[in-house]
Amino acid sequence: MMEKENTIRVNRLPAITWHTLKINDATLSVPDRFTAPTCTMEGNLASSPVEFKEIRSGSGEAFDSLLSGTAVQTYDVVSTDNAEVPVRFHFAPVSDAAEAAVLRLVAKKNENLTVITDITGEEHASLYLQILLDIDQGATVKLVQVQAMPSSSILVNAVGGTVGENGNVELVQLLLGGEKTYASSRISLSGNESKLNASLAYLGEKDSLTDLNYHAVHEGKRTESSFETYGVLRDNSRKTYRGTIDFLRGSSGSVGTEYEDVLLLGEDVRNKSIPLILCAEEDVQGAHGASIGQLDDDMLFYLGSRGIDPKTAEKLMAKAKLDTVAHRIGDEKAEEMAETTIEGQF
Which residues of 253-281 are buried (b: 16+ CB within 10 A; e: fewer)? Predict the structure, then answer.
């Protein structure tokens, strides 16, 4: 039985705009207590407790405090010499349960770590997941997430990280199911010449809600960030995307880019996109772009001249956008799951 719920605000913009636009943040109902996650894993956890620095996630202080202040299952993963073998987590929350977990990933100096999480589960299930990254000098973390939850489920997925000098983080996420999805990332590029490369794909359908907040914080000199987002919205689905490139004072020589490509398949979808560049340093480069709309008549005519009807054309184009990110997974098992889920949605 679900616990009594409270309300918190998550996914807040770093610099708020007019409240009447209703895009500054999202309202989230959360339970008083969480249950242990239904989770299986492949790979080794840390053999002893990990000293972990305080790291903020993209969901915000209220959500971070909620998970740190309750008895939530925590998994610590530390890089090893066997960097070729990924650590895998499979979450499958059960019906009418509010499950929660914290993953703390540590990449030691000049070492690599790959972690893959896939999320399925039962109808009417909820999963509250926080993933924190501590990336040392010269280290690399690749985090892959494939979400294929049923249409009545809820996911809160909050990523936070700090990257040391010459460190790298690659984030590949596919959000392909669920009734309500709140996903976020806040990566602090604190070391000089540290890098973030994030690729995100999402599918909104029926009456689903997708709320996204992605924040790159440039602290060190000559840091680089890149966000690429590909989405498909159909039926009555709703989506809000907040993407922030944040150049702090002292981040000279840094570069940040973000791009969003959204295919709208229906007259009743609602899309909100808020690309934001904050700048407290002069010698930086920031750029953002977006392509949002339906298939144009020229494209439909071209495909129709080759025997492809409008419905099939929509299917092909939608799958192509989602596959753009699926092909960046770099793991056969996870990529197969993503492609099977995408195929099943169309």
Answer: bbbbbbbbbbbbbeeebebebbbbbbeee
Q: How far is the C-alpha of 118 from the C-alpha of 323, rounded, in Å?
A: 16
| Angstrom distance (rounded) from CA 75 to CA 102 | 6
- Total-model pTM: 0.94
Q: Are 127 and 152 in contact (CB under 8 A)?
A: no
- By the 10 Å C-beta count (0-12 exposed, 13-18 middle, 19+ buried), 311 is classed as exposed
Task: Write out the E strands in 176-297.
Answer: 180-189, 195-204, 209-218, 224-234, 238-247, 254-265, 270-279, 284-293
CA–CA distances in Å: residue 333 to residues 7, 34, 53, 320: 37, 30, 32, 20
Locate the DSSP E strands across the chain: 5-10, 26-31, 39-42, 73-78, 87-91, 98-107, 112-119, 126-135, 140-147, 154-163, 168-175, 180-189, 195-204, 209-218, 224-234, 238-247, 254-265, 270-279, 284-293
In this model, does residue 229 exceed pLDDT 50? yes
d(CA 270, CA 127): 25
Segments making up each domain of the chain, as ranges: 5-294
Cα separation, 302 vs 296, whole angstroms: 10
**Among 199, 205, 276, 208, which Cα is nearest to 245's?**
276
As beta bridge partners, residue 264 has 233
Task: Tell me the per-residue pLDDT of 250-301, one tens digit each, with 9 for 90 and over.
Answer: 999 999 999 999 999 988 999 999 999 999 999 999 999 989 988 877 877 7
